Amino acid sequence: MELNVIGAKALTVSDDVFGGEYKKALVHQVVTAYQAAGRAGTKAQLSRGQMSGTTKKFKKQKGGGARHGDYRAPIFVGGGVTFAAKPRSFEQKVNRKAYRVAIRSIVAELNRQGRLKVVSELSMEAPSTKGMIAKLAELEVKGRVLLVSEDATEALYLSARNIPYIHVVDVLALNPVSLVGSDFVVMTVDAVKKVEEWLA
Q: What is the pLDDT of residues 145-170, one digit of tens each?
C-alpha cells in the first residue's frame, strides 16, 4: 500500500504494518500493562504487629475496656492498618511479539482513520515556538499531537515544549500509550521506514 507524504511523492509501505486488522482486546492489554509497569509500587503501611507501642493493659479490669488488647488495634485512631499495603510490583508480562502486534494494530488504525500524517522531514533550524505553531497549522493537525522523528533534535524538542499537548519522540521512544492518547501522529519518512522495519 501507499502512504501520502505531505509535500513529496507517495511512500510504499507494508500492508501488514499500516493496513492490518485492529485487535482491540490486545491493544487494551498492552496499554494496561504499559501503564501498570510505570507504577512505583512503593506504598507501605504498618500492620497491627508492626506498630510501636505498649501492650500493657490500659484500663482497669472492671468497668469495660480492659479486655481489649491494646491501643495498636485497627479500631483505634493511630492504630495499625487491618490489611496493610506493602511494596510490590505491578508489572504484567507481555510477550515481545504481542507488543509488536499491538503497536502495529494501533498504527494501522491511525492510518485508517486519517490521523497519521507523513512528512518528508520534521526539523527546526533553531528553537521557535511560533515556527512550530505555523508548521502544525500547515499540517492541519490539532488537539493532542505526537511528533515522531527518526532522530528528534534539541531544537525540535524545545520548539514544541511550550505548546500544550504537543509531544516529540524518536522511534525508540514510541509506546502504545502515547499513540493511543494522540489525536494526530505526525511521522517523518525515515521514522516510517524505521517503524516498518521494527514491526515487520
A: 999 998 888 999 999 999 999 999 99
